[in-house]
Write a structure and sequence with these properties.
By secondary structure, the protein is an alpha+beta fold. The chain is 45% helix and 11% strand. The protein has 16 helices and 13 strands. A hairpin with a 2-residue loop joins strand 12 and strand 13.
């Protein structure tokens, strides 16, 4: 799978709640009845999946039968998939074909979604559009006050995401204007920034990976997106494994499970081994107790524990840069990463040990002093990040009291920060035990 939907934070199941109360079957709701009819008209055979609201994950799909390993979860016919082929066969096709320079596949899909949403009752895709989220929780949708509470590396990526979507909008305006003959209303009103943001989030959070051959009417950006109605209601779990691909024989996109799933339980798929920062950035949710989660240490945080008076400091930083050891320095559930410890060992090398830096990168022990200093500074960084996280959590709780309209997004950042705090506290415990073992 490439991507799926944006979600709010995953809550933990309350232990006293009976399992049958964890979910409410939603298949009787009119929008799902209409969607199912629409899918069947396109060759979809009713499966064992039912839309439901789950206490801990929100909207998802439950199974009406026990799924064994290698069982088919869903098979969605090609006719049900929304791809650039769909766009080209619509009234937008001729405008895309003649536009120079060519638009990207992403722009084409965004344009189609906005146009179809504007068409309302006249849209052939209305039953699908009606079940799409009205709003998203990706960083591009977050208020500045909320983005400022994200951890530093994610905050930077959130700003990059916002810039990228804004640039996409600005670069697409002329193309949008060329579509005026198709609409009675002004295209500037239809294809406004908020419409593009919604369409971009829909594609970024909900599409499956499906490669298409390069076409001259599109730019050279990869054409790998497909929106998959109904299938995209499946939620992510880091603890399941699936096999997902387009089957050329059946001309359907198929997902098979590699995990057991009991009758009436939620069926999960895995979007990949992503940490919570990546999940929030790409999909707009965090997964609690995510085994892939990490807390990132910025190079600025790292370097403030080493005196600028160290004559070899700049040389050490250059070595770390050359060996890509100033990025992706993390704490995880099993403590500080090898990358973080190695970077700290290089920075902790004494003047008489500096020539041994290559051995440090290979994992050799240079001296007991070097090992101990690296561990001590790791513990200091860990405690600094714990204090910083606790401070941000206090800010969030104060903001939640005074900003009702930001509550949902603040809860999302709070869930991320609470998970960070658990990881850091676990790391602090591991470092304490390591220090006791070495003294």
């Amino acid at each position: 799978m490439k991507k799926s939907r944006g979600r709010t934070s995953r809550k933990r199941r309350r232990k006293h709640l009976p399992s049958f109360m964890d979910r409410v079957n939603c298949s009787h709701k009119l929008e799902y009845i209409k969607l199912m009819k629409w899918l069947k008209d396109r060759g979809f055979e009713d499966s064992h999946l039912r839309p439901a609201e789950f206490w801990d994950t929100g909207r998802g799909l439950m199974t009406t039968k026990t799924l064994q390993v290698r069982d088919l979860i869903i098979s969605l016919p090609e006719k049900c998939l929304l791809t650039t082929d769909t766009v080209l066969s619509s009234c937008l096709g001729e405008y895309i074909m003649k536009w120079k320079p060519p638009v990207s596949p992403l722009t084409a899909l965004c344009t189609f979604l906005i146009a179809e949403k504007h068409a309302g009752e006249k849209s052939l895709w209305k039953p699908y559009l009606d079940v799409l989220p009205k709003t998203y929780s990706c960083p591009v949708c977050l208020e500045h006050d909320v983005v400022s509470l994200l951890p530093e590396p994610l905050r930077k990526k959130a700003q990059e995401q916002r810039t990228m979507v804004h640039e996409l909008y600005m670069s697409s305006k002329a193309f949008f204007s060329s579509l005026q003959p198709l609409f009675a209303e002004n295209t500037e009103t239809i294809f406004n920034y908020s419409a593009l943001e919604w369409a971009w989030c829909t594609i970024n959070t909900r599409t499956i990976y499906m490669k298409h051959s390069q076409r001259k009417c599109f730019s050279l950006e990869p054409d790998v997106y497909a929106l998959a109605p109904y299938l995209d209601l499946l939620n992510h779990s880091p603890n399941v494994q699936v096999k997902a691909a387009f089957n050329d024989q059946t001309r359907s996109y198929e997902i098979r499970t590699n995990s057991l799933c009991k009758k009436y339980e939620e069926v999960f798929i895995c979007y990949g081994p992503h940490d919570n920062q990546r999940l929030l950035l790409e999909y707009g949710f965090v997964a609690m107790d995510n085994p892939h989660s990490s807390v990132y240490v910025s190079s600025a945080t790292l370097l403030k524990y080493f005196p600028p008076l160290d004559k070899q400091r700049n040389a050490k930083v250059s070595i770390l840069k050359d060996h890509d050891l100033l990025e992706n320095l993390t704490f995880g559930w099993d403590g500080p990463s090898w990358r973080l410890l190695t970077a700290l060992k290089v920075l902790s090398l004494g003047a008489d040990e500096f020539t041994c830096w290559r051995r440090t990168l290979l994992g050799d022990v240079i001296s007991a002093r070097n090992e101990q200093q690296a561990l001590n500074i790791t513990a200091k960084i860990c405690h600094f990040l714990i204090e910083e996280t606790q401070h941000v959590l206090l800010q969030i709780s104060q903001l939640k009291r005074n900003n009702e309209n930001l509550k949902k997004h603040l809860a999302l950042v709070e869930a991320l920060r609470l998970e960070d705090l658990k990881i850091l506290e676990k790391s602090a415990e591991i470092l304490c035990n390591l220090n006791m073992a070495t003294t």
